[in-house]
Automatic annotation (TrEMBL):
Catalytic activities: tRNA(His) + L-histidine + ATP = L-histidyl-tRNA(His) + AMP + diphosphate + H(+)
CC per GO annotation: cytoplasm
Family: Belongs to the class-II aminoacyl-tRNA synthetase family.
Entry EC no(s): 6.1.1.21
Protein source organism: Deinococcus proteolyticus (strain ATCC 35074 / DSM 20540 / JCM 6276 / NBRC 101906 / NCIMB 13154 / VKM Ac-1939 / CCM 2703 / MRP)
Alphabetical UniProt keywords: Aminoacyl-tRNA synthetase, ATP-binding, Cytoplasm, Ligase, Nucleotide-binding, Protein biosynthesis
All copies of domain Aminoacyl-transfer RNA synthetases class-II family profile, residue ranges: 31-334
PANTHER family noted in UniProt: HISTIDINE--TRNA LIGASE, MITOCHONDRIAL-RELATED, HISTIDYL-TRNA SYNTHETASE
Gene it is expressed from: hisS
Superkingdom: Bacteria
Region described as Disordered: spans on this chain: 1-23
Top-level taxonomy: Bacteria, Thermotogati, Deinococcota, Deinococci, Deinococcales
Enzyme class name: ligase
Protein name per its UniProtKB record: Histidine--tRNA ligase
Compartments in which it is found: Cytoplasm
Binding site for L-histidine: E90, G91, T92, R121, Q135, E139, R268, Y272, Y273
Length: 430
């Protein structure tokens, strides 16, 4: 039998056998709803970009020295030829590309955008880390104000707390301005060069290209060297303006009651990143506890070919990671809502009638019906399985009287309702 690709999951309807939270379509939809509610109340608008982009966009937008570009991109082929496209591994670069290409600057600044959808990385499959995974992504474009940074962080916090999570923490740092980062990179080159032979091959390359990336290395030998050298944090290298900006962000969050911990070890090694950087963690899901993160990327638009700088800040969290955290805390997900009404015919003659009544009822409420005749017991059992609130059967008597007897499947209450009064009843009782 043909099976789904490694590192992917089917999102299944309620009641599917062996259904896990991260594979439940209703759980993903629940997170989408909460994110939409929080973000759109704050003025964010939904945007959707293609699931594949020009390879050049991803290489510029994510960075040629990253593991994503060097090892994890899915390349798209068509008609037997290389298309020069890749499945998107993240959401920020595509959204900034769409902003530039479609002249969204005309919508005013700051422009708040959000999206959700699948991302793709060819990485080792682990719990909560898939090759097709799903993210919620938020971007704020056109403002360099510390208030935009603080609001972005607060909105991420608002979503996870609205989902009921309590064991989450925000680790907040800053990578300063380009000149601060340049000074820090020179410090790191001087620090790591004497230990060149002990570094992984990836980190030897990073030492020349971008030494800050060494601090993100997954290599145990690299991390041992980092621990031995007691590397000074980026925060020690912040200039006056970047330090003031960082303090303003922290002050806003404190004023709003958004909890955070200052983490000097957080770095974002790409050239277009500026100042604020943070991660969202949940210790209950294991050593790799990050649920998501974000940062300021004022240099990204120019990296993608824009003439002028477009200040931006954004974040993303992994839906599968969030669902693991919710499962760890024992949080339940809203059950799929069944129809308000389920109808069945007692004989073949009246199947078309119940279909017509169900379609009529859908003007005001959810309604479903049986495609075939059913006995009364079968009909009510099926209505209960589907989670219907009210159910009724129609035979010759009901058709002749133009009246049905609705049964409340929770209380057992029965109510006689004429066909032409069905929608009025459902408006008041669905």
């Amino acid at each position: 039998m043909v099976k789904r690709p490694k590192g992917t999951k089917d999102h299944l309807p309620a009641g599917s056998p062996g259904l896990s939270p991260d594979a439940a379509a209703s759980a993903h939809a629940h997170i989408h709803r909460i994110a939409a509610q929080v973000l759109e109340r704050a003025g964010a608008q939904f945007i959707a970009t293609p699931m594949f982009e020009e390879a050049d966009l991803v290489q510029r937008g994510v960075g040629g020295s990253t593991d994503i570009v060097r090892k994890e991109m899915f390349t798209v082929y068509y008609a037997g030829e290389h298309g020069g496209y890749v499945l998107r591994p993240e959401g920020t670069a595509p959204i900034v590309r769409a902003y530039l290409e479609n002249g969204l600057k005309q919508l005013g600044a700051p422009l708040k955008l959000w999206t959700h959808g699948p991302m793709f990385r060819a990485e080792n499959v682990q719990k909560g880390r898939l090759r097709q995974f799903h993210q919620v992504d938020y971007e704020c474009l056109g403002s360099s104000d510390a208030l935009a940074d603080a609001e972005a962080i607060a909105l991420m916090w608002d979503i996870v707390t609205a989902l009921g999570l309590k064991g989450v923490s925000i680790q907040l740092g800053s990578i300063g301005d380009p000149q601060d980062r340049a000074a820090y990179n020179e410090y790191l080159r001087g620090l790591f060069t004497p230990h060149l032979e002990g570094l992984s091959e990836d980190s030897k390359d990073r030492l020349t290209r971008n030494p800050m990336r060494i601090l993100d290395s997954k290599s145990e030998s690299d991390q041992a060297i980092i621990a031995e050298l007691s590397v000074r944090p980026m925060l020690d290298f912040l200039g006056a303006e970047a330090a003031a900006h960082f303090e303003q962000v922290r002050q806003h969050l404190t004023d709003w009651g958004v909890p955070f911990e200052t983490d000097p070890s957080i770095v974002r090694g790409l050239d277009y990143y500026r100042r604020t950087a943070w991660e969202l963690h949940h210790q209950g899901i294991g050593a790799k506890s990050a649920l998501g993160g974000g940062g300021r990327y004022d240099g990204l638009a120019q990296e993608l070919g824009a003439k002028d700088e477009v200040p931006g800040i954004g974040w993303a969290f992994g839906i599968e990671r969030i669902l693991l955290a919710m499962e760890d805390e024992g949080l339940s997900f809203p059950a799929a809502v069944g129809p308000a009404l389920y109808l069945a015919a007692l004989d073949d003659e009246h199947v078309a009638l119940v279909a017509a009544l169900a379609r009529q009822a859908r003007q005001v409420a959810g309604a479903d019906f049986s495609f075939r005749r059913r006995g009364a017991g079968q009909a009510f059992k099926e209505a209960d399985r589907r989670g219907a609130r009210w159910a009724a059967v129609i035979g010759s008597n009901e058709a002749a009287q133009q009246r049905l007897t609705l049964k409340n499947l929770s209380s057992g209450e029965q109510v006689a309702v004429p066909f032409d009064g069905l929608n009025i009843f459902l408006k008041e009782n669905a």
